[in-house]
Amino acid sequence: MSSFIAALALSVLNIAASILLPVDVAGPYCGEAVNTSFMSNSGLLKSDPGNFLGLMGSIEFKTSDGHVCVSQRRPQNSFTTLTVKQPYEDEPVCCNLEEREQYADKGAAGVRDETVFDSFRTSTLSGFSYYEVIPDSCPQGAGCPLVVEISGAGGHPWAMALSKCTACKAEMKVVMIAPIVGNDEDTSTPYVRNIVQWASAYLEKASNIDPERVYLASVSRGNEIGIQGAIFGAHIFKAVVMTGKFKVPETFQSTWRHMRAEMFTGKPKLRSVVLHLGDEDDVLTDEEFYPKLTDMMTVMAKAVRPPTIELSIYRGAGHDITWTTWNEMHSVLWTGSD
What we know:
Layout: H1 2-20, H2 32-41, H3 43-47, E1 58-62, E2 68-73, E3 80-85, H4 97-104, E4 121-125, E5 128-133, E6 144-150, H5 166-171, E7 175-179, H6 189-205, E8 209-219, H7 223-232, E9 239-243, H8 252-263, E10 272-278, H9 286-300, E11 308-314, H10 322-328, H11 330-333
Parallel strand pairs: 1-3, 3-11, 6-7, 6-8, 8-9, 9-10, 10-11
Antiparallel strand pairs: 1-2, 4-5, 5-7
Helix pairs in contact: 6-7, 7-8, 8-9
C-alpha cells in the first residue's frame, strides 16, 4: 500500500510539474515563488476553465520588475503561446496628457468623444463606407503595411484616433482603413466575406501597400468578424489581432473544417492569430469563454498550415484594453517595423 501511495504522490507531482514547471526550456524559467504568485493570485489561471493552459506550447510570466520567465514548455504544442503580464500600460504611450484626455480617455459619461471622427477622410468602395488614414510616410510606391481596423459594438475604430496625437502621427508608417459599421454590427458570415472582399478591393487599387503585410485588428464584438476573417481572409491577412472576450461563432468549427483545405493549402498568408485579454474581463464569464477558446484553438491546429496562436493575458485588466493592445503591438500595427 505504501508503494502505491508513493507512486500516486509521484504521479501528482509530475502532473503539477507539467503545469507549473518548464519542459525542455531553453531560456530562464520561473522559480516556485513566481509560479505560485501567478497561479494562486489569478482566479483565471487557478481555475483553468476549459483546460486552456494544457493546450499552451509555452507559458511565460512577465513580473512587475519586467523580468520574463518560462513556466511551461511543451514542444508538441508549439503553435500556441501564452504570456501572462503583471505590469501593463493602459493609456496610449505616444499621446501626451492633453491628447489622451481629448482622444483616448472616457469622459464623465463613461464614453469617448466621437466627434474626433468628423475630421477623418471617408470613402466608399465595394458597397462599404470607410474611414481612411494615409500618413505622409506612405506615398505612392512606399510599400507600407495596411491595417484594417474593425470596431466593437460602439461602432468607432478608436485606435485610428491615435493618428491625431502628435508623436503617434510622426511615428505612423502604416495605412489604416476601417469600415463604418454602426452600432448594430453585423457579424454574419456573408457580411464577413464582404469585409474581406472590400479589403481585397482596396489592396488592388492601392499603390502604396505591401501586400505581404496586411493586418486585421478587431476589438470586442468586432472579434466575431476578426476570427471569421482568419478563415475567409487567410489569403490576404498576415495576422489577425483581437482584443477582449467575444462570442465564438457557433459555426466557427464547422466552417474552419470545411474551409481549411481551400484556404490553407499552398501558401496562405495568415501566420498568426493574436488575442489580448484581461483576466478580469467580465463581458462573458470565464466558463463561457475559455472552453470555447480551447475548442477554437484545437480545431485551428488541424489546418494544413495552421497559424500560430499567441495569447496575452493581463493581470487585473478588464474588457476594454484597446490601448494596451496597441502599445504592445506598436511596432507591427503602427510603425510597421516588425
